Amino acid sequence: MNGITSGNIHNFYCDQLKEGLNVLTVHAELEGGAIRPSFIRLLERFQAEKVRCITLGEAARGISDAPACSLFMGEIPGRAGNVAIQGAVVA
User: Fold this and answer.
1) Which residues of 23-62 are buried (b: 16+ CB within 10 A; e: fewer)?
2) Cα separation, 6 vs 37, whole angstroms
3) Which helix H or strand E contains 38, and what residues bound it?
4) Is 83 inside any structural domain?
5) For the segment 42-87, what is each residue's pLDDT rounded down to a tens digit?
6) Is the dihedral of CA 6, 78, 23, 21 positive or negative?
7) Is 70 inside a domain boundary?
8) Among 3, 14, 27, 56, which one has the highest count of C-beta atoms within 10 angstroms of its own C-beta?
């Protein structure tokens, strides 16, 4: 899929990081099983680059003024199938 393989997906994810909150959905059956070596490489790179990992609950507790936004389903590079994507701010 787009040249992304289990051997390089950790680099793809790291290259997509932006300033602020980034969310990576982890699936136990994939990252804990079929692509575990890739997930370990991702965590090792996060550690080397001082990327801080927290739960969504921890992130939500630190947000008090988030705008309401539309939500739609679509495809994004590096993910199989449709995923929820944040849209424009709802007035």
Assistant:
1) eeeeeeeebeeebeebbebbeeebeeeeeeeeeeeeeeee
2) 8
3) helix 36-48
4) no
5) 999 999 999 999 998 999 898 888 889 999 999 988 778 899 999 9
6) positive
7) no
8) 14
Looking at the structure of the chain, the number of domains it has is 1
Q: Angle CA(83)–CA(88)–CA(91) in degrees, nearest 5?
A: 135
Distance CA 52, CA 64 (A): 20
Residue 4 exposed, middle or buried by CB count within 10 Å (0-12, 13-18, 19+) = middle
Q: Is 84 helix (H, G, I), strand (E, B) or coil?
A: strand
- Smallest CA-to-CA distance from 45 within 19, 69, 16 is with 16
Is 52 inside any structural domain?
yes
User: In the numeric block, which tokens belong to residue 80?
Assistant: 């199989």
**Is 84 part of a structural domain of the chain?**
no
Which range of residues forms the domain containing residue 41? 9-64
